[in-house]
User: Which sequence fits this backbone?
């Protein structure tokens, strides 16, 4: 992990802090606070602050439902009830702040989640480090054929080498030119080009970094979309580490999240009618033709069935 | 302060908590954490959680400006720089959570601040307490004559008594009817009307409560609008207590907020031209007639001057 | 419908407008533009402006997916694809503006949808009309017993009369007192109390009005939550009228909304496992005990089955 | 302007549309609807839809202030009143939708405005065009010395040529490698790398495009920040064209925007005290030392004065 000594020193120093607080704390999260959690080749996430825990969700829900929630036997049941019925506001009551280093093309996907606070390293003010993302060979894949996005088969090692070679070459040269333009050494034979301008021909795999703060509700939305197999591999790598953080931070919410969000399935009105027929044992369900071929496949896969040959054509 | 023994017990219990944390803490805020800060006759605010401090603002700004901020001599100068140039995102990095009891008509103004998280006591699930806001005599005022909103002169004590008397009478009767409709005593001679329905004829001065969480940037916006003399007295009472909390929590930001927001003045393009002329000692500034009478008055008041008679008419 | 002559005149006048535009228009929506659509006893919604249509959703999606969408056979298929995969941003590209008159207690639920623009009639500046919501007898119901919110059985007509009688009485008296305090007739024997203060003992069933503008994505979210049987009857009445407007405005999106949102079902991870077992014909599914009794009931109801007696206890 | 024939055809075709609508229309904006307004070397903005006009702002304000606004003589005065007192919600009632082609580094600054709807061309689904931004010679400038961001002096023509040459070279090579990786020609000797991966070494000056929709309030915020001299030249070029669009669309709001926002000045509490002293002719104002040197300079510049030598040092 290419973190300079300075940076590691700061992490170590921050981790020695011990304060007394009346606020609730989460031991499992305190354990990893400030630590660098590596992602991709040079990226990381670090939890730098948090507010609230599972109990904060419960506390907010209980003020809403007031005495009405006295009948809910325990906090776990209440959190599952909230999650299941999309009562989302109590989950806004807990907050997480991360320090993230990530390639710019990942940052561009990430920033589309608008309900978060972000402070990014500015290449107008400062000079970008010589740090770039290159995929490992196994992650270099062909464009999928049956799908409009995403990756298909892995390429051969030789092809992977050639591709990474090209990327490295372009990237290195761009960065050398960037330094040349900045002229930090103040060579009098050429100007020191404005930073905001010199950086425009740097590639999208250049690493940037930011502080990112969001509440638990929006964090779950982020994770659900970005840890999904349809998300680009590189942002998924971040989302998966954030899931692990979430598991430490709010274990009860996390469990409910898996049950009612990440691993749940949404059935369309037509799909419900089809499954209803099938459960009644009525043979080939009549509604199947109303679904597209892909929807049919997915529906059957959901329940571990294979699509009958008669329904497997458009 | 009409807080039941139960409630005070919970506050006391929460305040005995002492946890160890690696997070930064703010002693002055820990001091008052969970405590009931009375507002109006039966309202309160309580700080129930917080995240970050002045240093969190600085930390986020430094990641943005990177090495560029090395030249900023100290944190106070950086915070003032951010405030002055409306670089608002670093202020989103600190977060405050309040528990608030407030009259419904105040809640209706408060909720217009959309960038916050709220969980309100639900009168669909639970029964509202017999708690209502009544203004003190000194706060019962006439409709202003020169302004389209707000209060003017105080009424006489006798009038105030009459008005409060009417309010109490209506409120009491409505609440009695509410209880009668709820029929919690399960009198078999009448139904137990649905709570969501029984509450609809309760008055707007009924107290409700909520958890309200927002970041420092939005908190400042709230305070600026709601502690303003044009805000309704009752919400201003809350905003002023929140300002005191803010002063304990983020004293450096608070000082900059006073300087560049709360006590600053915005001069229109025309006003700038007028003051420019006046500073040059050109006698009666030519642009004055471009301002409305009210704008003229306000401009002169801003600088402790009285409007020349020649400019005091429409 | 208690709309003054003035108001109806304005509607009629606005409806005579005919402008030429290069923007796309929706005939079925133009047909009802500005018209008063009654809701409850004195409420209404009126479409006062709109932007975009089904084609605007498609247009935005095609810029995202670029040439990738050339394979999507038609617009309807694309809209269904977007809805099904929660690609929600293209639905933000169409916008609707309503003028709504609604009781204050409904406004309080409505306003919780934060991603909308609102301008409400201000009782600080203006005097509220003598207009109140009273439920019809059939809508006066008892508090449900098995549920923590909402209404159960209807009450008898005699009870309904008594309840409405109480509400009318309280409401009328409060309004008389409101007028007395305002003293618009300038009776010199008493003050004219500030409007912002005089209104605080008015009841929650007083009608207010606002302009409300939101995009199609947020409109669908509103409708899904507020046209739901768990929503309070009174806000549901509004949501149902908005659904009819949506059907005229964006018929293709509306159809997809019914299929993949309003009439869809979300199955939890455990529920998926249970249905999988049942489809394999394995008899009583082993996972059933992991669900709460209510979840079990709902799952079986979803597929038109009755819960086996062996699973019908906690 | 490098727009393919297809694109221009579509613009021309869209511009032939003529529909009848009951909605208000803005002739000056209809005039330019769909037209390509060039920005930078290959960028553009196009207005593709709009909702509302100056009258929509007035209409929303009048519902808020109700009869209270009858005393406001005319719409222009009301709009100026709203702008001056930061009553911002009525400005949310008008909406603009743009189609924009812009370099990725500009898109990264633009997207930080979170309260807007965006659909961007996706390089996961589609292939990016061979279009890159290169600054003109006059816009290639040195890093400022006295400021932490932005550009200072222009470089010589020879230096400019060298810099643009480097940028072109890097950009061209990266794009050639991108095409090679994509292997759209399906050369069997190498794989067709996934689009989402092949694009990661493209430079930040590659053009992207999006649909961007926001309301008038947020549009003004965007313009104020991005047409500011401190904004990077390239995004400023877009903001300035958007200002021209705004002037056509909502001329009264635009005029008020210039007066109370764009050309207004915010004076800090200390600055107000200083100007107050100066207007009283008290000689050197005592508060000057409380301001930083930069603040002092800016304050004097605001009013066309030069800083007295005695105050011109730190």
Assistant:
């Amino acid at each position: 992990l290419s973190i300079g000594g300075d940076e590691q020193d700061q992490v170590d120093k921050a981790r020695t802090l011990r304060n007394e607080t009346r606020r609730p704390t989460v031991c499992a999260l305190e354990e990893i606070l400030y630590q660098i959690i590596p992602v991709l080749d040079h990226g990381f996430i670090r939890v730098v602050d948090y507010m609230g825990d599972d109990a904060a969700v419960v506390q907010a829900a209980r003020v809403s439902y007031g005495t009405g929630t006295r009948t809910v036997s325990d906090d776990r049941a209440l959190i599952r009830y909230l999650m299941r019925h999309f009562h989302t506001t109590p989950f806004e009551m807990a907050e997480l702040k991360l320090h993230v280093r990530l390639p710019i093309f990942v940052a561009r996907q990430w920033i589309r989640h608008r309900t978060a606070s972000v402070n990014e390293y500015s290449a107008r003010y400062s000079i970008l480090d010589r740090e770039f993302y290159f995929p490992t060979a196994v992650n270099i894949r062909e464009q999928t054929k049956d799908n409009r996005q995403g990756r298909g088969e892995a390429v051969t090692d030789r092809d992977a080498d050639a591709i990474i070679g090209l990327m490295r070459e372009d990237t290195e040269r761009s960065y050398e030119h960037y330094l040349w333009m900045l002229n930090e050494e103040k060579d009098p034979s050429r100007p020191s080009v404005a930073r905001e301008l010199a950086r425009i021909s740097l590639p999208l795999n250049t690493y940037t970094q930011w502080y990112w703060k969001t509440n638990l509700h929006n964090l779950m939305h982020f994770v659900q979309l970005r840890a999904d197999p349809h998300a680009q591999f590189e942002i998924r790598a971040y989302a998966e580490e954030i899931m692990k953080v979430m598991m430490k931070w709010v274990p009860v919410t996390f469990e409910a999240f898996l049950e009612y969000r990440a691993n749940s399935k949404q059935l369309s009105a037509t799909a419900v009618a089809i499954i209803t027929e099938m459960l009644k044992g009525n043979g080939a369900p009549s509604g199947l033709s109303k679904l597209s071929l892909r929807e049919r496949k997915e529906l059957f896969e959901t329940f571990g069935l294979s699509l009958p040959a008669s329904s497997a054509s458009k």
Remarks:
- Chain A touches chain C through 38 residues (CB under 8 Å).
- Chain A has a mean pLDDT of 92.
- Chain A is about 45% helix and 15% strand.
- The longest strand of chain A covers residues 43-51.
